[in-house]
Design goal:
Largest interface: A-B, 15 and 18 residues
Largest sheet of chain B: 5 strands, mixed
CATH superfamily of chain B: Thiolase/Chalcone synthase
Order of helices and strands of chain A: HHHH
Helix content of chain A: 40-55%
CATH architecture of chain B: 3-Layer(aba) Sandwich
Distance between the termini of chain A: 9 Å
Structural class of chain A: mainly alpha
Order of helices and strands of chain B: EEHHEHEHEHEEEEEEEHEHHEE
Number of strands of chain B: 15
Strand content of chain A: under 5%
Structural class of chain B: alpha+beta
CATH class of chain B: Alpha Beta
Number of strands of chain A: 0
Strand order of the largest sheet of chain B: 1-7-6-4-5
CATH topology of chain B: Peroxisomal Thiolase, Chain A, domain 1
Oligomer: heterodimer
Number of helices of chain A: 4
Helix content of chain B: 25-40%
Distance between the termini of chain B: 35 Å
Amino acid sequence: MTRAELKRIVADVLEIDPEALEAETALKSFETFDSVSVLSLMIELDEKAGIKLGPGDAAKLATYGEIEALAARQQIALTD
Amino acid sequence: MHSAITGMHYCVPTRRLTNDELVERFGERQVKSIVKMAGVTERRVVGPGETASDLAYWAAVRLLEDRHVDPASVDLIVFASQTGDYQLPATACVLHGRLGLSERCAAFDLNLGCTSFPYSLAVVHGMIAGGMAKRALLLNAEALTSVIHPKDRGLVPLHGDGASATLVEATAGDHGVEGVFLGTDGTGYHHLIIPASGARMPRSAETCVEETNESGIVRTKEHLHMNGAAIFHFSVYKIPEVITQALESFKLTIDDLDLVILHQANRTMVTQIYRALGVPAEKQFMFMEMIGNLSGPSTPVVLAEAWRQGRIRPGSRTLLCAFGVGLSWGVVTLKWPDTIPPAVAAPVEPGEAAA
């Protein structure tokens, strides 16, 4: 999976432009990032990227970069 | 001896809580976000002085009338709820008196939330199979809105109040309650909890102070707290596994089922579970859009509504699965007889005055 594809998944859930997502981007800076969108991320990341976002990680999720880091921890390779 | 469900009815409060009212309380974006996820557009909520047992009373009265059951012939009444009238006595005793049941009728409560129907049905079935009862009135009722903080923008949009009444009787036939598969993960007890609701944290001046968490949810320790991510994860990942294990233990497959009814926690959750199990659309049934998540009464109310809508066919098999607070889960299969009485056609709102 490419980084662009992963950004598209997250951007679609948050209803934002994927270009707005950088590693340090604070997800709370988007008004669409809330407790409900986190649940959607759980489903979409698993179904479309195989990334498992558990409740512990979900509670701490602060930046877009943490999603890429989660993919790396789960041995899911992201290409440019 | 087998036991079988011979009639069901339900009752929801008259008072409606619409999305328009919630937009005024929580803002449009928050309500839109939850509605999109949960698929709830309206809820029925109890009014001042109205309780879960009032709803159960009306469901029971109408069920007994419709089935021409003499109240004196009921030998077991079970009230399953976490919002009973009192800590003591058991609300089943209060309802026993209100319904005019016999002194030979056993009455007790079961303290369970979302899974109260499969658990309480299993208890009633066991008592009938063991010869301890012949005709049971099972009441599943909850007024969860009375324990949710009105400013809790996460829980208020999801939940409504309601009650079901189920008549369970001994039968010589081979239909009725077929398979029962119950389970618990008590390590997750804190994910759905009212912290100050018993001996562990007695109520005090501190427990009624409003707090706002990092998600902007307002509540006190005397109100329901939910770890939404943990409950959602448990539901969409654990429950398909549980149903698969249950089917294996029953020696059944999805092909052997005619209807699969799931606890109506929220639409996305239910859809995900159906999808994970490969349940075809014609075997699915949803009923939450106009009533919300009722907790314990959810599955029996959905079953009663499916009956009202003609979705229970003679000779068919229904699987029910409820899951949630505890954490706990329960799966039951019901085999329906070749002749099914018509559904109870009485109103589903309370009568003019509580008796």
